[in-house]
Amino acid sequence: MPTVRRIGSARFFFYSNEGAEAPHIHVERAGGVAKFWLEPVGLASSSRLRGHELRRLERLVVEYRDEFLEAWHGFFRS
């Protein structure tokens, strides 16, 4: 499960067996997890994260979207 970036206590990653899905990023923070689609950015699912945490994480996904997409395509093209 490649970690793409860490920001504070949040870890942004994807699983190595998800190449058949649309590009997305998982975020793990303080015991909670979320999954965000990247094209366009949108929340796919979440568990144990509050609304304000999800909004903050979504802003980070938007900010780093190009980096996440580059990592996704770079990994799954191999």
Protein traits:
single chain; globular; alpha+beta; five-stranded antiparallel β-sheet
Briefly summarize what is shown.
The protein is an alpha+beta fold and 78 residues long.
Describe the structure.
- The chain has one helix at residues 51-77; strands at 3-7, 10-13, 24-29, 32-38, 41-47.
- By secondary structure, it is an alpha+beta fold.
- The chain has one domain.
- A five-stranded antiparallel β-sheet has the order 1-2-3-4-5, covered by helices on one side.
- Strand 1 and strand 2 (10-13) form a beta hairpin.
- The two termini are 15 Å apart.
- The mean pLDDT is 96.
Global structural class: alpha+beta
Please, what is the oligomeric state?
A: single chain
Compressed to H and E, one letter per element, the order equals EEEEEH
Amino-to-carboxy terminus distance: 15 Å
Global shape? globular
Rg, Å, rounded: 12 Å
Strand order of the largest sheet: 1-2-3-4-5
Major β-sheet profile: 5 strands, antiparallel
Our count of domains comes out at: 1
Number of helices: 1
Helix-strand layout with pairing:
Blueprint: E1 3-7, E2 10-13, E3 24-29, E4 32-38, E5 41-47, H1 51-77
Antiparallel strand pairs: 1-2, 2-3, 3-4, 4-5
